[in-house]
Specification:
about 280 residues; Rossmann fold; Conserved Hypothetical Protein Ylqf, Chain: A, domain 2; eight-stranded mixed beta sheet; two-stranded antiparallel ribbon; about 40% helix; binds guanosine-5'-triphosphate
Length: about 280
């Protein structure tokens, strides 16, 4: 894990976040569209309590559209708006901001009725490492962004970024921890690159990924690496990929490390295809 989470650290993060959330009207919860369940913080509901939130299914460009739609419906059935986004191109961000304003409309109107001065809607981005928080903040801030200065009660140095409409975004995201004690979750986080340090050696990780992808998308592997058919086992498939890519070392032996890196890189960048690794119906209740 690239962050050394331990109970003390988690407790401190949780308390700090709860403190910051007092200033926030809407939480933007970023998830990886390929693994919305595994990229979720296990305590998020308790942390944000009753705050309105918008779920952002980021990296939607790397996920399967049909499965992303089933996640959107899943969230809708639970009373939450989930929006697919590609932060690199900005696709979906307009809808995110509109939804952000909508979910607090009533609250803001109620404040106005009480005679409070009108103010911007304050947003905070939260999510696990590598889910795209900084990229999204930068994208939203753009060139035209104006920083609106420190607000009391927020850790020194934090700034508010003025966005389109009547919105303000905290420039520092809340970094949350994933449910890393669950092996299946850890594996999916490693596949997508959310866990940088190896939870297992890279060759085994690539073999597990081949196994996962082969279950429903063997055609994508066959196409990408020009294989007539995938192998009978993940190892055989890996060897076929190695031959296709010329990953052979002296003496004709297969360079498993290089092959594993190619497979993982090409999955992570979407080159093998848009492959989601979990569906709402997979969630263990
Ligand atoms: N394909 C794709 N890549 C994305 C998207 N959003 C972010 N990325 C990439 O994901 C990687 C991680 O993005 P960051 O913005 O650094 O993520 P972060 O959540 O701020 O990460 P931490 O600083 O570790 O907490 C970068 O390589 C981004 O370019 C997206 O919508 N699509």
């Amino acid at each position: 894990m690239n962050i050394n989470w331990f109970p003390g650290h988690m407790k401190k993060t949780r308390e700090l976040l709860k403190e910051q959330l007092k200033l926030i009207d809407v939480v933007f919860e970023l998830l990886d569209a390929r693994i919305p369940f595994s990229s979720k913080n296990p305590e998020i509901n308790e942390i944000i309590a009753n705050k309105p939130r918008v779920v952002i299914l980021n990296k939607a460009d790397l996920a399967d559209d049909d499965i992303t739609n089933s996640w959107i419906n899943y969230y809708k059935n639970n009373g939450v708006s989930a929006i697919p986004v590609n932060t690199i191109t900005g696709k979906g961000l307009k809808q995110v901001l509109q939804t952000g304003e909508e979910v607090v409309k009533e609250k803001m109107q109620a404040l106005k009725r009480k005679g409070r001065r009108e103010r911007a809607v304050r947003i905070m981005m939260v999510g696990i490492p590598n889910v795209g928080k900084s990229s999204m903040i930068n994208r939203l801030a753009g060139k035209k962004s104006a920083q609106t200065g420190d607000k009391p009660g927020v850790t020194k140095g934090k700034q508010w970024i003025r966005l389109k409409g009547n919105l303000e975004l905290l420039d520092t995201p809340g970094i949350l921890w994933p449910k890393f004690e669950d092996q299946e979750v850890a594996l999916k986080l490693a596949f997508t690159g959310a866990i940088k340090d190896q939870i297992m050696d890279i060759e085994t990780l690539a073999l597990k990924l081949i196994e996962h992808i082969s279950l429903q998308h063997s055609d994508l592997i066959e196409e990408r690496y020009s294989l007539g058919n995938i192998g009978e086992s993940p190892l055989e498939t890996m060897e076929l990929v190695a031959k296709n890519r010329g990953c052979i070392i002296k003496g004709g032996e297969i360079d498993y490390t290089r092959t594993a890196n190619i497979i993982l890189d090409e999955y992570r960048s979407g080159k093998i295809g848009r492959i989601s690794l979990e569906k709402p119906c997979d969630i263990k209740k």
